[in-house]
């Protein structure tokens, strides 16, 4: 069962990570600082976020696939995804 958490992310009742993660969770997942990820976001080095009610989130599954692909720049990542 899924539910909205107080941080605005979608969580699971089993205590696992949600489907959508915020920049702080992304920083912990990638072991990078929020500031460095903000710079990467502006420079187009991260996958595009999704916006839910004005909140910026990333798809956890997409981040995993992006890392497996070698963390390509957003334009190249978009091409990879479009080819699938």
TrEMBL record:
Q: Which domain of life is it from?
A: Bacteria
SUPFAM superfamilies from the entry?
Putative DNA-binding domain
Which source organism does the UniProt entry give? Gemmata massiliana
* Protein name (Swiss-Prot/TrEMBL): Helix-turn-helix domain-containing protein
Q: Which InterPro entries match?
A: DNA-bd_dom_put_sf
């Amino acid at each position: 069962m899924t539910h909205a958490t107080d941080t605005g992310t979608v969580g699971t009742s089993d205590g696992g990570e949600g489907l959508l993660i915020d920049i702080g969770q992304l920083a912990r997942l990638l072991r990078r600082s929020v500031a460095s990820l903000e710079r990467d976001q502006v420079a187009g080095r991260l996958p595009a976020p999704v916006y839910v009610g004005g909140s910026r989130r990333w798809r956890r599954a997409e981040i995993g696939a992006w890392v497996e692909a070698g963390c390509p720049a957003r334009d190249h990542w978009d091409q990879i995804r479009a080819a699938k």
